[in-house]
Amino acid sequence: MNRRPFLQKLSLLSSSLFAMPFLSYGKFDFPKATRLKFITASDGHWGQPNTDFETSHRNLIEAIHREKDVDFVVFNGDLIHDDPALLPEVKKVYDQLQVPYFVTKGNHDRVSEGEFMRIMGQPADYSFITKEDYGFLMLNCSNEAGDYLCADLEFTKLILEEYAKLSQVFIFVHISQNDWTRHGVDCKPFLDLITSYPNVRATFHGHDHDVDGQMIYQKKPFLWSGHFGGSWGNPFPSYRVCEAGEDGKVISYLKTVKDGTLLNGHTL
User: Most buried residue, 4, 95, 224, 256, by CB count within 10 Å?
Assistant: First the structure.
């Protein structure tokens, strides 16, 4: 099966189908009481030549501020466009948010891990627990040369073991760790590792600007968010919202930056 065009078709199909309230389809149900709500957006490419990156970032921040009860935001890689001098600039933009934020390092974030830590105040491989029940992993998948890399298996396993008793764990890594997209990498040991933990609820990717849907591996969901900046990809800059309910239900849905139109949604 040729999965790459299938995924692209699935992404475009879901986006067109759900450009209306998707509750009416009967397959998507918001939690009755949301305990945790976070947003993930990727590929802002601050500083990319011949793009209006300042406007795209301003629009995203305004869209996030229109959302209610957001606990935090994850910028899932390609924060900047190649030039290390841009990283302090984009941090100042992120600092305008009224909620906490976290970041992953993408292939265009061409700074050393030491510089990434110094500027962003967070390691390239990072984890945290919130509200006692939810674990989060931010994983590095590139280097100063911009190579596409597999995530660190040793670090990932260490944290997943530490978080094994949590109710839910969410993973963020910029580049898809499977070659089911045009720009993914073949990292099957990573996939097998994370899907072997029952409490890993979902994995979130960026990188593929033209992909905004979901794929399944070993019954675990892997989701993309399209892009909100950069020079290519889907014609609608977007971001993804995830809500976890008191009853254990988790949903995720994609929205346009421009006006908050719901593009697709998934029960995780």
Answer: 224
Give which of 53, 44, 185, 190 is closest to 104, Cα–Cα.
44
Q: CB neighbours (10 Å) of residue 158?
A: 13
Q: For the segment 189-238, what is each residue's pLDDT rounded down to a tens digit?
A: 999 999 999 999 999 999 999 999 999 999 999 999 999 999 999 999 99
Domains belonging to the chain, first-starting first, are 3-10+38-237 (3.60.21.10)
- In sequence order, the 6+-apart residues with CB closer than 8 A to the CB of 73 are 38, 39, 40, 41, 64, 97, 99, 100, 101, 102
Q: Model pTM?
A: 0.91
**Pairing label, strands 126-130, 134-139:** antiparallel
Looking at the chain, list the stretches that DSSP marks H as alpha helix, in order from N- to C-terminal side.
3-17, 53-66, 87-94, 113-120, 153-162, 188-195
> Do the beta carbons of residue 185 and residue 148 sit within 8 Å?
yes
The three-class DSSP label of residue 125 is coil
Q: 């899932």: which residue's tokens?
A: 76
d(CA 48, CA 157): 35
Give the burial string for 221-241 (b: 16+ CB within 10 Å, else e): bbbbbbbbbbeebbebbbbbb
